[in-house]
Amino acid sequence: MITSFTSESVAAGHPDKICDQVSDAILDAALAADPDAHVAVETLVTTDRVVLAGEVRCRKKLDYEKIARGVIKSLGYTNGIYHFSHTSPVSVYIHEQSQDIAVGVDNEGAGDQGMMFGYATNETPELMPLPIILAHRLVENMDEAREKKTLPYLRPDGKSEVKVSYRDGKPVRVEHVVLAVPHDPKVSPDRVKKDLIRWVVRPVLRHYHMAVPEDRFITLNGTGRWDIGGPSSDTGVTGRKIIVDTYGAFARHGGGAFSGKDPTKVDRSAAYAARYIAKNVVAKGLAQRCEVRVAYVIGQREPIMKTLELFGTGKKPQKEIEAYAWGLLDLSVKGIIQGLNLKRPIYRESARYGHFGRNGFPWEAVVQ
To answer: Which end of the chain is more exposed for a tag (fewer CB within 10 A), N or C?
Structure first.
């Protein structure tokens, strides 16, 4: 049976991703100063304005405005024509963490309730679904082409979308690629499309042994024109790209965002733990696909649910696979934080091109 699936990703300069990276840069600064810091910070960006709000408990005073400006500058928003830049006004509304939450967290309990899911599949080397990996790599290459001036006329912001055909559950063909990116209007859309196919689309698809679709199945800027991107054309908020951040809708999501939250918030840490377990089950060859499901209650240390779904692809008895999976990591809040060494400033980098499927993060490590 032939089916298809589509996933999207966004560039590092997308308004929502600006916000995720600012929030996580604040988290990194807090953890660098105080590994026991508690952080829950939201960022909003719009035309010539940045707003920071939330709760922080840290032994050191942080310069939130400086942190935000540094992230925005690094993303290329340094030109007045964008109507948003590293010189835009920054409003800060950050206060101490609620004592009602702090009591439970200080007792090594979960910082919130919720359900979290982790997923892995053997259809790519990263053990991720192909549509989301392709979407991520496309915007990553697009950003790199702008930053390295391979395509100097590109401007910050951008999106991708990839439609993949599956036969009997296996990816067989890329049917359609969609790219959206603002650029200097002096450069014709035809030239931009040709350059993007050469420098972005073709290298990514060839790396994953996929043929490049015909030109008519590669769409650039669906409305025909995009000159100015960023917050002046689309307000951004932390935590609005949760499907981009995870599995591109190929697997379930509990609903909680990651960025701006310290690891006592199980929305983040337990989702990382679930991915770690699922990835290692698949990496060990125990199943072709694996989904890990956990649930927590605020203030309680242990999950109230932990289950394993193999979608009929298990290579050994279920109980044997479960014994391996649950032995990989203590799923108490403290166990996750210690087992994955999460009280470190490692989070800003996770806030672009997906939290999963990239080496260098502890939840992506494979047990030898």
So the answer is: C
Which uninterrupted H or E stretch holds 3? strand 2-10
196, two tokens: 């993007």
* Whole-angstrom distance, CA of residue 347 vs CA of residue 350: 5
**Helix (H) and strand (E) counts for the chain?**
10, 11
106-137 pLDDT, tens digit per residue, is: 556 777 789 999 999 999 999 999 999 999 99
pLDDT at 99: 57
Sign of CA dihedral 298, 252, 277, 238: negative
- Please tell me the distance from the alpha carbon of residue 43 to that of residue 30, in angstroms, as a whole number: 16
In angstroms, the Cα distances linking 19 to 87, 99, 235 are 16, 26, 10
With CA atoms as reference, report the closest residue to 243 among 234, 224, 256, 231.
Answer: 256
CB 238 within 8 A of CB 19: yes
Exposure string over 194-217, b if 16+ CB within 10 A, otherwise e: ebbbebbbeebbeebebebbeeee
Nearest to 20 by CA among 8, 32, 11: 11
Structural contact between residues 284 and 277, judged by C-beta atoms closer than 8 angstroms: no
Which residue, among 240, 275, 234, 288, has the nearest Cα to 358 in the 3D structure? 275
Please tell me the distance from the alpha carbon of residue 162 to that of residue 179, in angstroms, as a whole number: 9
Q: How far apart are CA 19 and CA 351, in angstroms?
A: 9
Give the separation between CA 352 and CA 343, rounded to whole angstroms.
Answer: 20
pLDDT digits (tens, 9 = 90+) for 237-254: 999 999 999 999 999 999
27: three-class secondary structure by DSSP: helix
* pLDDT over threshold 80, residue 267: yes
Q: Look up the pTM and report it.
A: 0.95
pLDDT value for 97: 63
